[in-house]
């Protein structure tokens, strides 16, 4: 498979200048900032408009439509492995839900609630569910709502409770192999998803651990409520137990996935094998008809338990639900390919090379760009796309693995979006949990602590991996 940047076309009659590059890049950032942040236009539409505008600039530089099309298709071709994984992830989550794997883990996770350790438990359970489902939104909309009800019963302040839940929910968005954001990041950077996850643990574990320490200290001062305080959790657990058969066999898809990931085995075959096993469990353990178990892979399960929170939790997965991520990725790859084919990245990259001469400077510049784009647009996909395209060549020039860059983007971009009040993520978290963003943001420690750990890694060189393979989509790169 092709790797690296797309070679600028030899057809160019005019050499792109820094002004041309800034017009394309800054103009796109402003277009998305205003269009998405102010007028709520879909990101896909804005990326298509940006691509068209860059196409007009490329035509003025001398690029023919044929060459533009080559750039578009080359970029999409390079991103296709990541898109295939995103689609298969939808089938995987659907099969795990139908098999009862995710419901069983949620059932026992909710049973761990201790009043004095509520914040710790909330963060851990939300983190576990989000890692298994790959959706922070789904986690907050289900487990998060249930935990907020419990928090009210215990007399726990809404800000700390919501902050712990948001932190846990975004653990999965950063390191789950099923998360759209994580897969989009590795797709743009052309990095293996499991290499990315393992590398992220160097900053994720201390950042999440720091949050748990704070939660444990704060939770120790919380007095337990009455016997009805855990009613919301008990209702969710009762609904899960009534509608699913729990068995140790349901952990087999999880164990298999972890084993394959630890062994640096190819991602797609492992996921497909896990889907086959989970589908079999849905048939033989949950007694679903085979046809229904197969259709779940496309549409996701339709389960009606009579409990709104549980029904919402189970309304996840299916390849259909991953089409939004796939569409955004296709638009982003098309934009990126045209930008590169017209040579509009080179003037910026050349100047970046002059500044980013050390790993510390490079990591610092990547972190700052993530924060700026994040504040401007409030969109995770754009926060991933622009820094990855700008700084990817600089990491390659310094001989650093692409997973270093995706780790910085995860620490400074992906997990920080729910802390932006004008972002969709911030609005969703705030509206769903009933807590203002500024009230829960200080308590969502994981969402900002990673910035400090990733900067420490960059400036000390500790855990900064060297590039091994030209094709970093291969396991073990």
Topology:
Elements: H1 18-37, H2 43-61, H3 65-99, H4 101-110, H5 118-133, H6 136-154, H7 158-175, H8 180-189, H9 193-219, H10 231-243, H11 252-262, H12 267-284, H13 290-299, H14 308-314, H15 323-341, H16 346-355, H17 359-377, H18 380-397, H19 402-412, H20 424-433, H21 437-440, H22 446-460
Describe the structure.
It contains 22 helices and no strands. By secondary structure, the protein is mainly alpha-helical. It has a domain of about 240 residues. α2 packs parallel to α15 and α16 packs across α18. The longest helix has about 35 residues.
Describe the oligomeric state of these chains in a short phrase.
single chain
What fraction of the residues are assigned to beta strands by DSSP? under 5%
Indicate the overall shape: globular
Number of strands: 0
Radius of gyration: 22 Å
CA distance, first residue to last residue:
14 Å
List the helices and strands in order: HHHHHHHHHHHHHHHHHHHHHH
Uncertain residue segments: 223-228
Kindly name the structural category: mainly alpha
Query: Percent helix among the residues?
Result: over 70%
- Largest beta-sheet details: none
Number of helices: 22
State mean pLDDT (0 to 100 scale): 84
């Amino acid at each position: 498979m092709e790797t690296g940047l797309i070679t600028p076309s030899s057809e160019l009659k005019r050499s792109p200048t820094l002004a041309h590059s800034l017009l394309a890049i800054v103009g796109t950032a402003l277009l998305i900032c205003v269009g998405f942040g102010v007028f709520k236009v879909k990101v896909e539409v804005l990326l298509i408009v940006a691509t068209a505008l860059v196409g007009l600039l490329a035509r003025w530089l001398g690029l023919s439509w044929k060459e533009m099309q080559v750039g578009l298709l080359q970029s999409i071709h390079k991103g296709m492995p990541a898109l295939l994984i995103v689609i298969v992830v939808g089938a995987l989550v659907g099969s795990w839900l139908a098999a009862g794997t995710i419901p069983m883990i949620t059932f026992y996770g909710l049973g761990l609630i201790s009043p004095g350790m509520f914040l710790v438990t909330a963060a851990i359970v939300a983190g576990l569910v989000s890692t298994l489902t790959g959706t922070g939104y789904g986690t907050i909309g289900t487990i998060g709502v249930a935990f907020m009800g419990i928090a009210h019963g215990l007399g726990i302040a809404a800000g700390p409770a919501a902050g712990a839940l948001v932190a846990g929910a975004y653990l999965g968005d950063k390191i789950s192999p099923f998360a759209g954001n994580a897969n989009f990041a590795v797709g743009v950077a052309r990095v293996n998803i499991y290499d990315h996850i393992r590398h992220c643990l160097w900053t994720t574990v201390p950042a999440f651990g720091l949050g748990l320490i704070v939660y444990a200290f704060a939770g120790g001062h919380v007095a337990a409520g009455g016997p009805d305080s855990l009613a919301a959790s008990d209702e969710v657990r009762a609904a899960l137990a009534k509608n699913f058969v729990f068995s140790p066999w349901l952990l087999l898809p999880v164990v298999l996935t972890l084993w394959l990931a630890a062994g640096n085995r190819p991602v797609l075959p492992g996921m497909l094998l896990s889907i086959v096993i989970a589908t079999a469990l849905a048939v033989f353990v949950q007694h679903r008809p085979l046809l229904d178990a197969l259709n779940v892979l496309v549409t996701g399960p339709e389960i009606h338990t009579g409990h709104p929170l549980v029904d919402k939790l189970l309304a996840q997965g299916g390849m259909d639900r991953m089409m939004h991520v796939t569409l955004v990725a296709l638009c982003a790859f098309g934009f990126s390919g045209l930008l590169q084919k017209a040579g509009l990245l080179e003037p910026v990259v050349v100047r970046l090379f002059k500044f980013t001469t050390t790993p510390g400077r490079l990591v610092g510049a990547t972190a700052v760009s993530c924060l700026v784009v994040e504040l401007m647009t409030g969109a995770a996909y754009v926060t991933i796309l622009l820094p990855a395209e700008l700084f990817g060549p600089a990491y390659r020039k310094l001989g650093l693995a692409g997973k270093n860059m995706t780790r910085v983007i995860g620490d400074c971009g992906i997990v920080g979006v729910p802390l932006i009040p004008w972002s969709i993520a911030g609005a969703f978290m705030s509206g769903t949990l009933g807590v203002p963003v500024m009230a829960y943001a200080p308590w969502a420690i994981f969402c900002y602590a990673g910035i400090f750990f990733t900067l420490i890694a960059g400036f000390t060189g500790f855990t900064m991996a060297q590039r091994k393979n030209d094709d970093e989509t291969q396991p073990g790169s």
